[in-house]
Amino acid sequence: MTRSLTIDYGDEVLLALGLSPDQFREEAKILIAVKLYEMGRLSTGAAAKFAGVPKPLFLTKLADYGVDTFDLSDEELRRDRTHAHCHL
Q: pTM for the complete prediction?
């Protein structure tokens, strides 16, 4: 089941950020996912899925927002390493 979240904001937010409504929507999803990951509430894979972006892009976004990408669990590291070998 997919749910949605509505956030009210004024045009001044878009003007301050220099974003279109679509760009703001996408950035907000990524920011929420980044924060949930940072708090340890979602894994990188779950956070990337929530944000609607591929995991490698999500990992890049973590770095863009100053979130340590080396807090991956041992299981996540093993899965990422296995997945990377499948694409070689």
A: 0.75
